[in-house]
Structures are given as C-alpha cells and as structure tokens.
Amino acid sequence: MVWIKILQWAVFLILLVFTFTAFPSYKAFYQSQFLPTVYETKPVDTNPDSLYLKIKHYADEHNVQPIDAKIDKVWKAIPGYNGLTINVKASYEKQKKAKAFRPDRLIYEEVSPSIHLSDLQPAPIFRGNPKKPMVALAFDVADGEEDIPKILNILSQANVSATFYLDGDWVKKHAELALMISDEGHEIGNYSLTQEDLSTQSKEEMVTKINKTNDIIEATLDVTPKWFTPPMGKYNQQMLNVAYSLNLMTTLWTIDAGDGNSGQPTSMVRRVANEVESGSIIRFSPTESTVKALEMIIGSIKKKGFQLGTLSELTNENRIDN
Predict the structure, then answer these.
(1) How far apart are CA 77 and CA 250, in angstroms?
(2) Per-residue pLDDT tens for 34-47?
(3) 3.20.20.370, 3.40.50.150, 3.30.750.24, 3.40.50.300: which CATH number matches 134-315?
C-alpha cells in the first residue's frame, strides 16, 4: 500500500510542475482566465467635456421663458410672446470640431406659451405684448378719400405695412380706393357698416351690420377680416361676444394720434413720440394732418428702435430682434 501512496504523490508533483511550466506565474494564470483587461477596468469618465458644460451653463443663464396671454385689469387682452431656449445638444454638435465655445454659433429655438390669445374669453385688445419691440399703425376709414393715396405713398416709401379698418358703406362707394389699400399689402379690418354707435343697438343689429361689412369686404377685396374695431371706440360685452362669435377679435388702440381734422401735425408727432412704447397700437384717421405728420411719426418710432407692423404681426407670438 505504501507504493500506491508514493505513486499518487508522484502524479501530483508531475501535474504541479506542468501547471507552472505552462503558466509562468499564478497571477498570469488567473488574469488570463478571469480578470478583465487593463482597458476594461479603466474608470468610465462620467463628466461631459468642458465645451458641453460651457454651453449648458450659458443656456441656463440666457434661456428666456415664454409669456402667456392674459386678461389685464387695465389693458384687457394681452397676447403672449414666445420664449427662447438654446438647444444644448445641437449647439455642442455644431461646435465640438472647433473645440471652442462661440455664442454666435449657438442654436436657438422658440418656445410657445401655454396660453394663447385665442384661449382667452372675449375681451378688447388695446396693445401688443410689452416685451415685443414692435408698434402697429391702424387707420379707421369711413371718409378721407383724398388723403388715402398720400398716406399709402408715405407708408410705401417707409416700407411699412399697416392695418386699415374699412367701413362697409365706404367700401361700396370707393371700391377702387379699397382695392388700392389691399393691393399695397396692408391688412384689412372690419369697421362696421356705418358710423353709428353699435353699443346702443340690439344683438341682432350688431350681427347684421358686422356680418354685412364682412360680406362687402370679401366680395370687393377677396379678403376675410380677422379684426374688428367699433365705431367711435364704443363697445360693450355683448358686442365683444358678437364679434367673437363671427371669428373677429375686437381691437382698439393705445395711442390716438389725433382727434380727426382738429389734430395738429406737430402735436400729433409730439404725442406719439412721448407715449409710444413696445406693443403700442397707434390710431389714425385719414386726414390732411395725418398726411403731414405721418412721416415724422414713423421716423420717431424707428428712432426708438421699434419695428412697425400690422396688428397680426404685432399680436402673434413670434419673437423679433430688438
């Protein structure tokens, strides 16, 4: 039996020698079979590179939140205004080859507000959003035929589009002038059928006169108005509801540039220059005084850094450059 034990030990020693001959070291043996490589055990870098962090930090400081449309106690319906956010991922992809942070190569995206003008209950609009550096010129047209071509020429020379509210009866009598206004690219609004105080009339009369004016404008100009302004600026809630039911939004004005023919050009220019601000709607009548003052008024508005546009442009949520 002794020789059997000797044989077992001999076999064990032979296997042991073979093992350490094939694998020079114990460490090498176990590393080769069970341990990951040096590359596999390298710690994962979970921190974004400095360029990405710079873009993200800049975005956190410069993103602008959207502004919801609202009903103001004083100004009634005020339109919303888009926010502005930096697309961090897209901006990083655009700049990573250069490996340098450049604010002028960031990618911006507009963000819509949660509440829009169309979500509000019927209310008059007296102004645009005060954060939007734009001003709208609005002309109430029920007469002034001799001055309208001159006004259109001034607007054309200044490259300004405005909104013209047209009286239905006036359009029937002066279709060529109405077409001239529309063909110049100006926006057309509804100024009721005649210059009677609609706020004293029944709902049925309001519907009839506003609807008939729309029909006349559509038949003459092939344009469907989206804006309504009441004669003499007089309104009540019933009128607002009627206009709303006819897919018209009621607008008035922030600044009345002059009170008809009695407005003096110098006082008109001074009034607008002193009172105009972001979001202002400026009301005009087609008079000789307006003709004399209009070019200077436009110049004073532009000098303050405001863009000029139609009511639709003023009240939409799109951002514009300061």
Answers:
(1) 10
(2) 444 444 434 434 44
(3) 3.20.20.370
